Structure of SWIM zinc finger family protein:
Amino acid sequence: MTLNADQILALAPDASSAKAGSQLAGPAKWGKLGRTDSAVWGECQGSGKVPYRTQIDLGEPAFKCSCPSRKFPCKHGIGLYLLLASHAALFAAGPAPQWVSDWLDGRQQRSEKKQQSAAEKAAATPEQAAAQAAAAHKREEKRDNKVAAGIVELQTWLEDLAREGLSTVRARGPAFWNDIAARMVDAQAGGLAARLRRASGMCFDTRLPDWETRLARELASLYLLGSACRRLPDLAPPLQSDVRALVGWTVSQEDVLAQAGVQDRWQVLAQHTSDSERVRARTSWLRGTRSGRWATIMHYAAGTQGYDKVLAPATEFDGELCFYPSAYPLRALIRQQDAFAPLDTTPAPAPTLDAALAAYADALARNPFLDRFPLLLDAVVPRAGAAPHLEGADGRIVPLHAGFRHLWPLLALSGGHPLTVMAEWDGDAVIPLSVFTEGRLHHFDNETVA
């Protein structure tokens, strides 16, 4: 399966890699091109005497290159994939050379080892499971004490802020927020630190005319989260998982993959990125064509490194997803992925606006800390003006988030006509991530907004 140029460029870790990859997409840059049904490879001559060996596993897709770049995929991987899309006849079919087959075999072995590890964990004897649980409990108890002390400090800070009000909070500058966030990191409550940094972003975001209201809601939610953590044993187990995840506890991928999976034809409908202290996070929204179920896949990259795996918007695959424990499961891992292909049909049917909002209300009732919810809105027309919004055929409107930066491209794609919009809803407004019109999915290069 070969993606088109737009889908390939969406795999790049940043704009500079996409541009550099485009410049390497000419036949003159490459030699020893070849392919099998599942992989392609080639050698790209750089500034040195030895050309860079670049290879792509078309199944995910996945990339490997001998160049020293820490970005993933590097410009050579992007360039090779673009060359395949535009000049497929240059790639001679035949057996893979040793350096390609070794890489493919290694990937297969690692995948099998991960699956075997998950299976062994699930099949552990009662004695082994008890010993592992006892050791984990001892570690968790030590951390629980640190987190509990941090939450007490945070709630005291929030109570002081509530008494003083928000009128002078901007004048205190970012250090006011950074100090308490750093103390939450010390308390091993990284999730609370992230929420405080997000609150700081709201405080100083000049695009938000109602920043005080949004900030007050965020701080109230943060206080509620701390209270929930302090009475964690009283909560239902699924909600306990949500609270622990938001405070900063993690669940191992092995534990997630040991759960029962959901098999479906998954469409990759949207994607956005966010940056936090040298760590980039890429969020991909998937929707099952048969179940209509939503899933979000998270990939992370540190520093200048690229993402370990990539998903391209406007693609789909047959696969099995395993969901993280939650009162309303959305985040998932891909256990199995087959029949990867470009999205050549319309997205799965969109629910009515009433049905979508009812689903959001149900999700919020299960998990009151849910701050983003996927909405697929059909036959809506974007409108500009003092309060930009999406308008349905019945005249009802859905406000656009003040931080949405692609209003004019959205208006141009619509041309005054209805289109299908994939967006995130925060309870007040939507952030469009992609639109489907004239048989094509258009993806906005969004960064997360507060």
Q: What stands out?
A: The chain is about 40% helix and 25% strand. The chain has a mean pLDDT of 87. Residues 127-247 form one domain. Residues 55 and 67 are 12 Å apart (CA to CA).
